[in-house]
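REQUEST FORM: STRUCTURE PREDICTION
Request ID: SP-0412
Submitted by: Lab K.M.
Chain count: 1
Length (residues): 278
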Amino acid sequence: MPELMLKKILESLRRNRYKIRDVSCSFSSHSRASVWEVYKSGVIQCLIIIILFFFTLNTVFPQEKVTSFKKQNQNTKYKSFSGGMRLSYGNNPSLLRFVQYELPDYFRVPESQQIPDFEVGYEFFAGFEYQVAKNFSLKADYSYFVKSMNSSASQYSMYDFTYNCHNILLTGYYLIPGEHFYLKFGAGSGMVLSNLSTQTFGLISNYNSAGLITKLESVLNTQISNSLAAYFGVFLSGTFNGTLKKSDGSKLSNRTGEEVNLNSFMLGLSLGFEYFIF
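STATUS: Completed
RESULT:
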């Protein structure tokens, strides 16, 4: 069964690679946004298959063959390392207004080709967690987030608006331990360092900002082996950034003179692994 799931993952990745190559070969008649849409759909398909693979692992490794987390955790507090990927669905109202003003005749394009208020971003995370008490733990978390805000209209193929963030958070979790799982409810905050890259007909400009990120998260760890668990999470987060600036200190403003920031509200899913040391 695991071999079958792995084959499905590889087949999906291969199909997605060919789709991107085919679209890239005809780039003159397709916008960069089209390539991005194909890529996103392939990534989401792969994530769904990987989720099913995780559940299969829990079935393939019968829990009676491993020492349960509850037993290992009786006399020893755990330390853990986690890592994986997040899908974030969120808005960027200030950035969206900026992009709308930058794209010529933007409001004349069909609504289906306009940029939605809420878009998907991708995030890769790694963290270290320490159990302070039976029902409480602290986690230091680093993540790298990337998101593009581009119209799918072909006349905007030479425009690109992409930003990335480095997030560093400290999160406290209330733990509900089970025989073969941990259920966690947490809240945290930290620092976010952001960069916006804009490209117009080959002219690239970069802007930076710093700010605060806050997050509410629920995590389910389901045991796979003595030390390894799957990591499933849902979260709400908000970022509060300063005005975007160039390296010379000049601020970024839209066509109406309004300063531009990367403030956002997001909800999303986390998927990965967590390795426990008791």
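NOTES: Residues 16-36 have pLDDT under 50 and may be disordered.
Reviewed by: T.R.
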